[in-house]
Amino acid sequence: MTGVRCALHRSLYRSLHRSLYRPLRGILALLLLSGLSMSLDAGLDARALWREGRREEAISERQRELAAQPAEQSLWLECARWQLAVHRPLAALQTLEPLGSLADALRGEAHYKLSQYEQAVALLDVSSPEGLLQKLDALEALMRFEECDALMRSAPQGLWQRDARLWSSEGRRRLRVREPAEAVKAFERALALDDADGEALFGLGRAQLAAGDRAAGLATLQRHRELLPKLDQWDFARRAVDLAPRHAANLAALADAERELGRTERATALYEEALACARSAEERVPVLLRRSRLWSETHKDPARAHALLIEALRTTPDARLWVRAGDLAQQMDRREEALRCLREAARLRPDDAAIAQRIARLEGRQ
Questions:
Q1: pLDDT in tens, 327-342
Q2: Closest Cα partner for 45 from 25, 31, 28, 59?
Q3: How far is it, in rounded angstroms, from Cα 298 to Cα 302?
């Protein structure tokens, strides 16, 4: 019964984390894509479109090519991989229908992503790290624990050193065999590799409760409840980037999610990538403002945030950036610099009453 309870707990976790927002994700992702306004260029082939980040167009072009004339198996496999990359596993299965056993590994991945675990475990390729982890997850979901444990023991040492999911599986195994103290250690190892691993945090709370440490267990489960909305934000943002990886707004949204999870290095890199992909001032300005908040609020470095804004203003003159630079200067008690920035903002927006009020307050006229 302990194993059944573990599986039920995990099923509950999944329903909380993965299913709550699922009906909205596809709709919202399509809305994001609808704003891209990208038309299919004559003469641009499927792979070129894919490299440009125009993924839905690339898939449509490849499907047109495959329908127009027979093609070698590698092109069908490539199309299915693209469909899996943009979270269309059912479409991938349909693409793979004409192929033989060469496509079994991809079929297994598609069945796994559709939560069709019986079909997945028969086909997944455990020679790849992701295939092994997916099969491990599927076997556990099916409560085929002996096979699950045997597969876990076969995992290469390097995977244990870099992937939190293996340690989470080990933690749940320890709970199944009533070794809560060892389960705590396993979940802590998982969180050392990824401190935003929701399953590991949930498991740690359960293990602490099972070990008799009620206060720690309840505190950990509270942390898990607070983490869940951030993980859902990250998951939605990640899917949007998968669909349109060179869309500045998508990259900035993923940067926001990484920042919320405390992954500041990833957030910093993603803001820079978003700026590189921005095609206009209207796309650049929101990203520049969010990057400035990362430096001033997360890194606690308002001077760096201010310097980056001043540098950006050389090529992107915008009143919003000047106002933000003025706020940062005021925060650092640099009154004259704050006034200079706000006056530049007023020059760009002479009829903006809010900017005029800020200047008046700084000048002591209010």
A1: 999 999 999 999 999 9
A2: 59
A3: 10
